[in-house]
User: Which sequence fits this backbone?
């Protein structure tokens, strides 16, 4: 039995015991991989895993010299009125959820306001405090749109095509990508994204994005008081469980990273996702102990 298959079999057994709503699992350890489908292999909304794609998009634009993520957002969106303190908010702050602007999520977030970016930036900022909101990533991609045009079309030949993807990305009523949600990927596509991240931006020998942007997904953590697994946030990545880190979307869509391993999970189980992530990391650590 291969390394990845052994890890996969243990995770599937553990998640079955937990009653977790697993739909698909892809395990890669080193150069070894294994995959299983427990439901039809269709493109699924990976929810907040898309926030990681948005960071990579901003990173590619930065590499090309067309976007300064540390410049005030007002430089790129000057026509949008700004609330108190918002003049200092940058694209990096938006991607790290440290804009200090509170705009809670709702199922109709993209249509609750005439213009979501205008609504976000028009509210006051409390400084560099953590305020997790899809509106932040959405606004960051509105910034990117001002310098590259349509984000999905621009990103296609730079990221999606090299990785063999042709994803659907849902759009707001005005036609901009929803950014931190609405990106539909099949399990194999999610796994390829994970491999690109594990290999620090290199795909089949070609660099897609500089390593510093991949590292930014899981470094320079912003620390806050929260439950286990939610105390440290970087640019789209959460620290944990244990020594691992993850991109974590609603209903159990996840990419988990530990050393040379990356595990892609598709699921339909929001409540059980944190325990599922722990199960994955336990299996990887179990294998590492066996390997010596």
Assistant:
């Amino acid at each position: 039995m291969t390394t990845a298959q052994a890890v996969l079999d243990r995770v599937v057994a553990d998640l079955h015991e937990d009653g977790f709503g697993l739909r698909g699992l892809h395990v890669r350890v080193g150069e070894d991989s294994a995959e299983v489908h427990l439901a039809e292999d269709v493109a699924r909304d990976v929810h907040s895993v898309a926030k990681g794609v948005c960071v990579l998009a901003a990173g590619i634009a930065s590499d090309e010299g067309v976007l300064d993520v540390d410049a005030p957002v007002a430089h790129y969106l000057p026509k949008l009125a700004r609330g108190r303190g918002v003049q200092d908010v940058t694209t990096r702050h938006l991607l790290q959820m440290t804009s200090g602007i509170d705009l809670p999520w709702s199922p109709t977030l993209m249509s609750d306001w005439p213009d979501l970016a205008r609504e976000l930036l028009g509210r006051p900022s409390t400084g560099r405090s953590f305020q997790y909101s899809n509106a932040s990533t959405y606004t960051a991609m509105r910034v990117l749109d001002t310098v590259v045009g349509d984000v999905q079309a621009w990103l296609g030949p730079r990221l999606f095509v090299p990785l063999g993807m042709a994803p659907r990305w849902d759009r707001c009523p005005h036609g901009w990508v929803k950014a931190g949600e609405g990106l539909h990927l099949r399990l194999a596509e999610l796994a390829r994204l994970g491999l690109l991240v594990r290999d620090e931006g290199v795909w089949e020998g070609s660099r897609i994005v500089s390593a510093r942007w991949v590292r930014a997904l899981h470094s320079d953590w912003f620390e806050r008081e929260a439950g286990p697994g939610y105390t440290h946030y970087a640019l789209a990545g959460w620290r944990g469980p244990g020594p691992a880190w993850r991109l974590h979307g609603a209903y159990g869509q996840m990419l988990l990273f530990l050393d040379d391993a990356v595990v892609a999970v598709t699921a339909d189980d929001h409540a059980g996702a944190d325990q599922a992530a722990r199960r994955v990391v336990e299996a990887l650590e179990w294998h590492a102990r066996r390997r010596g």
Q: What stands out?
A: The two ends are 17 Å apart (CA to CA). The first strand starts at residue 22 and ends at 29. DSSP finds ten helices and 13 strands in the chain. The mean pLDDT is 96.
